[in-house]
Amino acid sequence: MRLTGEEEAMRAGAFGPAVQWAIDHQIRVGRYLGAEDFVPVSQVHIMADTESLGVAGVEWLENWARLPAEHRRVRVPTITDPRGTDFAAAHRLKHQPWMLDLERRAIAAFEALGILMTDTCINYQTIMPPVRGEHVAYGDTGVVIYSNSVCGARSNFEGGPSALSAGLTGRTPRYGYHLDERRRATLLVQLAATPRDLADWGALGGIVGRLAGDYWQVPALVGLDRVPGSDEMKHFGAALASYGSVALFHMVGITPEAQRLEDVIPDGHVRTHDVGEADIRAFQRAYAQEIETVDLVVFSAPQLSLVEMRQLADMLDGRRAGIPLLAVTSPQVKPDADRMGITRRIEAAGGTVLSGMCFYQSYAREMAEQNGWQRLATNSAKLTNIIGGYGYRPALMSMAACVDAACAGGRIGARTET
Amino acid sequence: MSGKIFYAAAGMGAKVRAPALVAKDGFSARYDLDRIKGVFSRPQHKLAGESYVGRVLVLDAAKGGVATAWMLYEMKSRGVMPAALVLNAVNPIMAQGAALADFTMISGFDEDVTRAIPDGALVEVDPTAERASIRIITAETKG
Lengths: 418, 143
What we know:
The structure holds 2 protein chains of 2 kinds. Chain A has 3 domains: 5-179, Aconitase, domain 3 (2-Layer Sandwich), CATH 3.30.499.10; 184-284, no CATH class; 290-407, Aconitase, domain 3. Chain A is 44% helix and 13% strand. Chain A is built from 19 helices and 14 strands. In chain A, strand 6, helix 10 and strand 7 (219-222) form a beta-alpha-beta unit. In chain A, helix 3 crosses helix 6 (97-112) and helix 14 (306-316) runs parallel beside helix 16 (342-348). The longest helix of chain A has 16 residues, at 17-32. In chain B, a hairpin with a 6-residue loop joins strand 9 and strand 10. Chain B has one domain: Glucose Oxidase, domain 1, CATH 3.50.30.10. The two termini of chain B are 18 Å apart. In chain B, helix 2 packs parallel to helix 3 (92-101). Chain B is an alpha/beta fold. Chain A binds chain B through residues 25, 28-29, 31-34, 47-49, 52-57, 60, 139-141, 156-162, 175-176, 213-216, 241-245, 360-361, 365, 385-386, 388-391, and chain B through 10-12, 26, 30-34, 41-45, 61-71, 73-74, 76-78, 89-93, 95-100.
């Protein structure tokens, strides 16, 4: 890779050992992925829950946090993805003291590095959405795909170590979705139906993700009969990234880089797939097969926006959940939900509002063992894709159907009267 | 088949020799593994229930989220990890995780290595050569 004078100085240790490690790490990654040089970044987002970090990862962070202040601080605004617990509700989830201790240690280390503990995977809705053409280094695949596709920003999937490196050096290797040529569509998806609710958008994301197949594929969609809203884009993108490891999509006539089909498919030669209503229903049915009752309902992955929180409260008014119902939002949304009475309404119906965490990033296997949870209903296709590996059997349903199941003691397909 | 060699577009880490565990399926440490027991745990995965410890995983594509970038390092700290990862298609997360953990990984081939390499074959993965490669030492397969 070509290095500037400043980058050579970083590599020689002029800015301390943390920056030296960071630029070396980035060079190794950049060489592997064909980067020719670095590109400056303006924002960084780090995924680093302690279930992923483990004790080894937290100790690794603490080593950097013990450096002198001038050698350990990030040089561009750097924020965090959800943590592994909500301290205010940890006892309700039966999180163990060792988990909380590890979380506190990780938080202290991040704070010493100058990182802003935003604890959110919906920063594009709540913190500072990137603008078209802005080079950033984001973790959380849902954050990357939304920022790339809906905002027109430029990021690869940056795992925790690489995101931290970008914060420390203020740059990232220029490969993948920082390059114009990588942002063209590689497959075309012709839709015969526009999804209706968030679970449908997630299912469509899962279908397109499976069609795409890997990180280097960029789907372009045509045939939508309206412009999706932010929460719809959020669920679609999160599922597409989860099922396909995809980091960028285009919706022709809607997303900023695809005003016309020829903007993203200039030569007109890509593979084409047709997707319709029957595909979306079949995708959802595949997950609910042989599940008649569930042990809990989870709304998470991504964290709920204020609008989703109010939709949930509206559905729960005057009703009572007979099984655990968890609604997970961001620390930025939660105070608004509190102030507007939304949290009170959800909890009055027996739900639990959680903040700053995400269900699958919060020791999901241990929660299952401690609480006797196995069968789970959710409207998040992303969560459905992930949670099977933690021993759960997930059912993908609309928010309304999930609420109905919760209020029927877990029975799927029931509609309790209010 | 013994001695057959497959060249990769990129590689990192040390040279290793171990039995291959092969499937036409993806890989994500978060989605697919019980990292405490060292087995594939996602029921839909073609290797569900199989131990990955000490095996050269030969799989199709990197899948899932960003957590693998941390998890390879954590798995290595406990010694419950594969010997190497060989992928038809890599994503940045795998490269980032392998770089942090000093883990052996190669990726990008002219043919589908999940079809070309027999499950259970003893293989040698060499990212240190001028062209990174995987070579079949003995092709005897399990069971």
